[in-house]
Amino acid sequence: MKQKVTFLIGLIFIVGIALGQEKSITISGKVTDSETGEVLPYATVGLIGLPIGTITNSQGEFDFHIPAMYSAETFQITMIGYEGFRAPVTKAETLNVFALKKSTTVLEEVVVSDSLTAGEIFTIALNRIPLNYPMEPYEMDGFYRDVKKVGDKYVSLLEAAITIYDKDYEAPRDYTKVRERVAIKEIRKSYDYDIAYAKYFEQYNLLEDLLLDNNVKYRSFNNEPQFYEMLKRKMVSGVDNKPLYLIYLHQPGYDLNVYIDPETYGIIRIEFGWGNGADPIFTYRKNRKLMNNVMRLDKLVEFEPHNGKLYLKYIRTNYKNQWVNTNLDTNEKDTELFQELLINNINDKTPNWISSSQKMKHYGLQYQHGAYNKVFWDNYNVIKETPLDQEIVKDLEEHMSLEKQFEEN
Predict the structure, then answer these.
(1) Residue 71 half-sphere exposure, CB side, CA atoms within 13 Å?
(2) Is 329 among the domain residues?
(3) If both were cysteines, with which of 94, 194, 275, 296 could 320 make a disulfide (CB 3.0 to 4.6 Å apart)?
(4) 244 forms bridges with which residues in the sheet?
(5) What are the backbone angles phi and psi of residue 100, rounded to the nearest 5°?
(6) What are the C-alpha distances in Å from 161 to residues 8, 65, 141, 186?
(7) Alpha-helical runs (H) found in 212-275
(8) pLDDT tens digits, residue range 354-393?
(9) Is residue 126 part of a domain?
(10) Is 111's pLDDT higher than 60?
């Protein structure tokens, strides 16, 4: 049941402090466009030279908890198309609004000297994956969230703090099988109030499905020559006016944007949308009574440089599905599953192998957790509330508070 989804919000960073230890430093604020004042969602927040961080949510807000040992480091916010914001951690603590300036370079007027087509650039980028992405074992800490919606009502929330061990970015023999080993640190979840449809979401490990949506790692791109011939290209501003190739294809019901570094040909960001919402793009699964039509897919995959390689930073998906009663040939329910994974720490020096006894099981995450660990979550990065969050919270708290559900569930 692969009905993934895009639910966005700026998320977290594991500070790793226990009760009684030295307090962390918290930088909170909103990231905006310096000229228009518009909020900037999904900007990268972190410390220069350190593989820890978070992103802003859909309202440009963030909370970033920093271990006290990093108080002398430099705080930064970066985003494609904008000049980065940088300041000492101690100064950033005092700010509430972080205004980013748009890149000043007018790349549309730059004459591109090379004669490579968009398809050729994309092909080079794919061939250079072993050079640009980690080919030695590494470990990542991450935050996973999924939100499920049935009809016009949100019915379930699940959040997990996880550790991922991965061997490398070699081309997989089977792109449908997850190669990463995942260990679950903590999980918290709400009750499922729509029991009739919750069971369809909970039969499978949705986090495994989300990991498979990393097109770069699993080489899940269109291989037909015609696809590469249809691609177009232009130059755009990346972070701090650095030029990027934008390889794109825009057609009715299909949008693809791939941002590529012109120096290394590393794929920095992938934006993908497929489906017009009215006609199925494919049928995923059906049983005796119900057929599951996938109506729309939206996806974002973003990578961040660390020690000369590109590592996964953030991935989110949004699958919209329509359930058809095969006996009556009628639409029974529309469902959505919002998923996201934020990587907030990378360990490429001393990665720890995840044993079979620690490894996440293939069945649903909601069955793989113990008692609610309130101390852990109180010390975990807080996700600021947005209007969308409030809508979700309102639905989920129809019977009791989320905190009470976490404790009892």
Answers:
(1) 7
(2) yes
(3) 296
(4) 236
(5) -100, 140
(6) 17, 15, 8, 5
(7) 215-218, 225-230
(8) 999 999 998 888 888 888 999 888 877 766 665 667 788 8
(9) yes
(10) no
